[in-house]
UniProtKB/TrEMBL annotation:
It comes from the Bacteria. The chain crosses the membrane at residues 86-108, 114-130, 142-161, 202-219, 273-293, 300-319, 325-344, 356-378. Keywords: Membrane, Transmembrane, Transmembrane helix. This is EpsG family protein. It comes from Glacieibacterium arshaanense. PROSITE patterns: PROKAR_LIPOPROTEIN. The keyword Ribonucleoprotein does not apply.
Amino acid sequence: MTGRTESRGALLPFIAALLAVAIACRRTIFGMLRYADYKFTDISPYNIAVLTPNYFDNGFIRRGLGGSIVYLIDGGTAAHGGSAAAIYQFFGAVMLALPMALLLRRLIARDDRLWRWFAVFMLVSPQLFWGWSRDPGRSDMLICGIIAWSLIAALGGRFFIPVLLLFIGSLIHETAIIYGGPMLVAMWFLTHRQGKVDLAHGISAYALLMVLLALAALARQHFGDDVTGIAATVRGARLVADNGRIFDIATYLTWSGFRSIGTSLCMAFSDRAVPWVIAACFVVLLVNCRVLFDRSLLVKCLLGFVALVPMIFMSAIAIDHGRWLMFAVSNAWLAVVAVRVMGIETAQPTVRDRRISGALLAALVLMGPTSAHFPSYLAEKLMPRLFTNNHPKWLQDCTPDWQATLGPPEAVPQH
């Protein structure tokens, strides 16, 4: 292989990353190009509301970092429109696609031909960038990106950097810990087996993470607004008064603590379709793991720990089952690639395995991309037809005084 060919091959992962970003941001890019005043063309007001509270207006609140980033993107205002959330979507996509490209490059350096398959999977999987494109304005890709960067640091046996990254991610959403924590434990176990880190290093790193999380929780009690102060910011910043109820719903479900978890569980358990949706997510995750060639028992156990366990936990307390599936598939991709980068798994799949994986991936693609609540577009359309007499409870049924929790509504002028 000539030097020019090697150089060209080294660039291919970054081309794949660029395509992945374009896929994830396809709707927002189109909206910004088409509309001079891009607001809610493709971004849910719910997502806008979640990104409105920030450290500048509300102090050190839970999940305040994402809103603070959007606040800065929009030039120091909380009354941001869809354009700021679209840029945030782009930032998250880049933060995930870039470390994935770096991992693919490491596979190329190991002369692992399977890197092409992982690149194709990254681009066409309905549970990765294609799925995230359906719900712009979420922080999910950014969280997965932080987990990916922490994994890269952990591969070198440096665990204090991943701990700091996961702590930063927890300031955006707790999924950074719920999905990133098991990934970090798994990477410590694997690097410890290879003699790169000792037990004391791992324990001290995790102890630091626990201390940081405890200090953050204590700081929020003393230096951050309560839910009424957050609601006032969201209500005052919304772009159109008609969105008031959606903004209130987002505020309640995001910042009302255990009370909102109880409401979510009430809504979930009253919906006869939910157990089937969770079961479908479980099956889709298993299919994705098979597509990623989970050959050895070690890899199967690894995927169960870093992908399945966090997904089950999140599905038990929150109703965004499709989102928890996409987090799980992202973790599965990272874990499978990582064990090959580390040289733990080196065997190439047989022709039969490749054909089975190709057929399964094609089936996933035909079912369509994941949404926030469903594992695929097909499931999203089938569930209402299968459960025609389903009458799940909604917010006012489960928590009649939910809106009172936010404080009295205020008159909001049209912007």
